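Can you make up a polypeptide sequence alongside its tokenized fold?
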Amino acid sequence: MSKRQRPDVSSPTFAVSGGARIRRVTSASAIYEQLHAAILSLQMKPGVALQEKRISEEFGVSRTPVREALLRLAEAGLVEIFPQSGTFVSRIPISAIPEAVVIRKSLERTTVEHAAEIATADDIARLDAIIARQRVHATLNEPSQFHEQDEAFHEAISAVAGYPGIWNILKTVKLQIDRARRLTLPVLGRMDSVIEEHTTIRDAIAAHDTDRARGAMMHHLSAVIPDIDELRLLYPGYFS
């Protein structure tokens, strides 16, 4: 966070929709996972102040596991801790996104090419089922569920290629991309565009056309860069 940017100390901390209490947990890892998911889904907005006391009360635990979870989130780049100011959900660093896109392109180029070489009819059926679920979520205007199926599509391609570990690596690389992309899905027509792009990738894999599959994937992954430029104007307080 730039020193010129003031944290959003007035924003609420983590709360469960409907006012329900978070289920009681005793593990720092469990707290980390729930806060991690809330930050990635933008349930906890960039710049929001995090209060150890309030979080410990909501989770029904002492401050020790909460503090451990927050330190892990800071290491992942999702939380910023300022000794004299407090702890805040990190803003999305613009400078980190181009490199993350390059890494993602490099790794997913490998997975989509291998998938195109060896995909079976069952593999294509698996991709079809995911795209079908995305169509339903797009029709119902459910961006969160849509995003989950977007993740499932790319994870399935890694599995089809025989490289499931690549997706595990990518999940850590693309954290900031995912936060930004959550802002794009409510945009009119964006979910339909993603479905189109996924269908083009699927068709190329089904045809065992590695060149077309690679090109379709590169086009799909490149869309995030112009999106970010527009998002900075729409949500200036979310980016750094």
Q: What stands out?
A: Residues 27-89 form a domain with the Arc Repressor Mutant, subunit A fold (CATH 1.10.10.10). The radius of gyration is 19 Å.
